[in-house]
Design brief:
single chain; 159 residues; alpha+beta; Thiol Ester Dehydrase, Chain A; six-stranded antiparallel β-sheet; Ketopantoate reductase ApbA; HotDog_dom_sf
């Protein structure tokens, strides 16, 4: 897949991804290193929490989402470079055996006023489980390179 420059993105574009199956051992390993709370580490301890069973750390979900993004067809020129989030939430837990995939929608495309060689795209990425329930929703602002030789007027008014 060829890298996409700012001029290649349009409001309303939707991108999909491959899938990741969440393994119990991976939930525990990530938690042991980065988020060592009982509901991420031990099934018995997790049973009596608000999760009612073992659940992946939200940060583990975010890391798996990042992997799916990198492997997806989005491929912004310069890489997936975040400039911040407008929204980031976890509406339901991720469980062992869940199969995650992404749907990403371009919400806005705009050239930078101060850096003419780049711009920003605003993208909503929803991480879905195997029954199409959202487990993470984020609206991110991504820095994307402009096509060499392009003019700012070529993409004005796209969002």
């Amino acid at each position: 897949m060829i890298e996409r420059y700012l001029e290649d993105f349009t409001v309303g574009q939707i991108f999909g991804s491959g899938r990741i199956v969440v393994e119990k051992e991976d939930i525990k390993a990530f938690a042991a290193k980065f988020d060592p709370q009982p509901f991420h580490l031990d099934e018995a301890a997790a049973h009596d929490t608000i999760f009612g069973g073992l659940a992946a750390s939200g940060w583990h979900t975010a890391a798996m989402t990042m992997r799916l993004l990198v492997d997806s067809e989005i491929k912004p020129a310069g890489g997936i470079v975040g400039a911040g989030f407008d929204e980031f939430r976890w509406p339901r837990p991720v469980r062992p055996g869940d199969e995650l995939r992404l749907e990403s929608e371009v919400l806005d495309v705009r050239p930078s006023q101060s850096r003419p060689h780049q711009g920003l795209i605003k993208m909503r990425t929803t991480t879905l489980n195997q029954v199409d329930q959202p487990v993470q929703v984020m609206i991110a602002n991504l820095v994307v390179l402009r096509r060499p030789g392009s003019s700012a007027s070529a993409i004005q008014g796209r969002g």
